[in-house]
Amino acid sequence: MAAVRKIINDPVYGFITIDEPLILQIISHPYYQRLRNIHQMAFAHLVYPGAVHSRLHHSLGAYHLMCNALSELKSKGIEISHDEELGAKIAILLHDAGHGPFSHTLEQELIPGVHHEQISFLIMQVLNAEFNGQLDTALAIFTNNHPKRFLHQLVSGQLDVDRMDYLNRDSFFTGVAEGVIGYDRIIKMLTVKDGELMVEEKGIYSIEKFLVSRRLMYWQVYLHKTVLGAEMMLVKIIRRAKELIRKGEGLHAASKVLDNMLKNPQDYQNMSDALQIFCRLDDHDVLATIKNWSWHPDKILRLLCRSLIDRHLYKVKLQAEPINLALTNQKVQEVAALLELNEEETAEYFVFTGEASNTTYNPADERINILFKDGTIKDISQVDNALIQHNLSSTVKKYYICYWRV
Q1: String of DSSP letters for 150-168
Q2: Cα angle for residues 6, 7, 11 (degrees, 5° grid)
Q3: N or C: which end of the chain has fewer CB within 10 A?
Q4: How does the average pLDDT of the chain come out, rounded?
C-alpha cells in the first residue's frame, strides 16, 4: 500500500499526523464521517457557547494521544509490533463510532438496551470485512482479548487516552479551566509491568490532578443543572412522541430513518441487521424533527419542542438530600394550573425528580497502579498522603427536581 502522510490542524494539540493508509481509509469512511454531525457534549453549548465540538474532533484527539502514548512506551523498551500499534490506533479511533444522536442523552431512549460500545464493535466488524481482516488486532484490543492487556487499558480504563482527551478538549471548548490536565506529563510517566499499564512514581501528582479535574468537570459541566435540564427536555420530547405514536396519532419525524426508529423500534433490536440504517442517523435528524414538531397540534409536544429551541428550559434544583414530596406536589399543582393540563400529564412531562451521581475513582473497578522505584506497586488510593484516598473514591449523589418555569 502506498505511503501516505496527512496533517490535520487541531485547535487543542496543533497538528495531528495520519501516516497509515488504512487509518486514512477508515477516517474517510461514511461510518466515521457521520461523527462530524454528532455533538460531543450534547446541549452543553446552551451553557457554554463554545462547546460545539463533535465526536469526530474527540476521536481524532484521542487517536493523537494514543500515538504519543505508544511512542513513549516503545522508547522505554516496551515491545509493541507495528500490527499492535496500528490496532491500538484504530481501536481508539473507532471507540465512539457507535454513538447515536446527542450521544449519551438519547442512548437509552432511541434503542433501549443497546449501548454505543456494542454498536462501535459492530461497526468495527463491518469495516474489518470491508478491509479484508485488517482490523483483527484492533477488534482484539477493543474487546480486551489481546494478550497485551495494556493496549486495551489505553483504549478503555481508568487512565485511558479517551478520558485524557475529552477532559482536555471539553475544558478547552467550554473555557472551564478546572478541566485542564497535564496529559503530556501523564503520557511521559506511563510504563508497563507484568503486562499491565502503570504510572511511574514521579507521576502521582499529575494523576491526582487528573482525577480532581474529572470530578470538577462532571459537576461544573457535564452535570451542570442547566445542561441537565436541556437534556431531560429532549428525553421528554422523545417519550411524548412515542406515547402519541402508541395512541395512533399523526406524527412524523423529519427523516425516514428517525421516523422508522420511533415507529418500529423492534427493527433495531438486532443491530447487525439495522446497522447501515442506524449509521445514517445524526443530530440533524433530531433537531430538524424538533423544529417541525414545534408546530404540532399536541400541546405537550409543541410546548416542549418550542421551549428547547428557544432555550426556555426547565428550572432545575440540585441538592444533597432527596426532594421533598410536598414540594413536588406543590409544583405539579402550580404548573398544571398554569398550562391547563391534568396533574398526571404535568407530573410526567413538566415536573419530575431524579438522581445524578458521579464516582471519580473506584478502586473496585480497574485500578490506576503506581510503580515505585524499588519495584513495588500500589493503587493510587493506597499511596501515602494521597489526596484520592480521603474524599474522591466515594460516590457523590445529588437529587434534582425539574419543573416548568412559572
Answers
A1: HHHHHHSSTT-HHHHHHHH
A2: 150
A3: N
A4: 93
Structural domains present in the chain:
6-221 (1.10.3210.10)
Q: Is there a contact between 389 and 378 (Cβ–Cβ < 8 Å)?
A: no
- pLDDT tens figures, 280-297: 999 999 999 999 999 999
Distances (CA, A) of 250 to 241, 253, 301: 10, 10, 12
**What DSSP letter does each residue of 297-356 carry, written as one string?**
S-HHHHHHHHHHHHT-PPEEEEESSPPPHHHHHHHHHHHHHHHT--HHHHHHHTEEEEEE
Q: How far apart are CA 41 and CA 38, in angstroms?
A: 9
As a whole number of Å, the CA-based R_g of the chain is: 23
Q: In whole angstroms, what separates CA 104 from the centre of its chain?
A: 6
How far apart, in whole angstroms, are the C-alpha atoms of residue 273 and residue 294?
A: 33
Burial of 78 (0-12, 13-18, 19+ CB in 10 A): middle
Reported confidence tier of residue 362, pLDDT bands at 50, 70, 90: low
Q: What is the DSSP string of 198-220?
A: EEEGGGHHHHHHHHHHHHHHIII
- Asked if 367 and 190 count as a contact pair (C-beta separation under 8 A), the reply is no
End-to-end Cα separation, the chain, in angstroms: 64
Q: For 122-149, how does the pLDDT look when each residue is reduced to its tens digit (9 = 90+)? A: 999 999 999 999 999 999 999 999 999 9
Cβ-based neighbours of 250, under 8 Å, separated by 6 or more: none
CA angle 31, 93, 131 (to 5 degrees): 60
pLDDT value for 385: 63
- 58 half-sphere exposure, CB direction, 13 A CA radius: 29
Q: Would you place residue 269 in the very low, low, confident or very high pLDDT band (cuts 50, 70, 90)?
A: confident
CA 263, CA 241: separation in Å to the nearest integer? 10
Confidence at residue 268, expressed as pLDDT on a 0 to 100 scale: 86
Spacing of C-alpha 363 from chain mean position: 22
Q: Using alpha carbons only, what angle is made at residue 259 by residues 254 and 262, rounded to the nearest 5 degrees?
A: 135
Mean pLDDT on 207-223: 91
